[in-house]
Amino acid sequence: MRRMSETQIKSLPFMKMHGLGNDFVVVDARAHEIPLPQGVITGIAHRQKGIGFDQLAVIENGTADAHLVFYNADGSTSAACGNATRCIARHLMDETGATQLHLTTDRGDLYARDTGDGITSVNMGQPQLDWQDIPLAHETDTLALPIDGAPTATGMGNPHCTFFVDDADAVDLETFGAAHEHHPLYPQRTNVQVAQIIGPDHIRMRVWERGVGITLASGSSSCATAVAAARRGLTGRSVRIDLDGGTLHIDWRDDGVWMTGPTMHVADGTFTPDFIKSCL
Predict the structure, then answer these.
(1) How far is the C-alpha of 45 from the C-alpha of 36, rounded, in Å?
(2) What CATH number should be reported for the domain holding residue 213?
(3) pTM given for the model
């Protein structure tokens, strides 16, 4: 990766945001390009020595209202991050006064809207249900994978593996998630969810994010879980999902999977030159 320029080392502003405790560092690169070497990303992600985040998001100029790029805490990239998209959409709507936005990501075109009372909805697009698109290592039934527990595979611009269990809180997610993130069926690793059906429109879910670990919430994981539950006939296509950090509402419609919930812009800051240099 390119090294950061002296100007960029002297000033690297950021925003800290979260959606239900799924937390993000957001860098606005619309005014000028900001190369972010992996060492800087992982340095920022460190909970004790940096700021800490589940994902880092970069806002760039694009063909729509903005283009978003996402990084996991280990420095790897992700084509999608639902809660970060909602957080940034809320920021851009507050900045411009718009009530609807057209955003682009490596996942594709995403549309956001203000639903009132500070609540933001994002259409995460249609789920990827074919094994090649998720992607999986070889052809198999994505509804019930040949893995103990017969989980369901779903792509939301990133891969997901959803296990339906009797009691989501009883699962040792630290061990369970780590063991399945690197399953050979998932060549790009996978996000892992354990989901408990509470009712036909209600799910309790916990998540292990690839490249991160246990998180309090995950937007794309919530979308994938809702799609998996509907495909298996366990729920309808509109559900409430209770995560460790709060509740999201997921609605799988003809035009895509809509995700709705609150966001929080926590603080603004600037990374110091000494910190940036220590990461390079």
Answers:
(1) 13
(2) 3.10.310.10
(3) 0.90
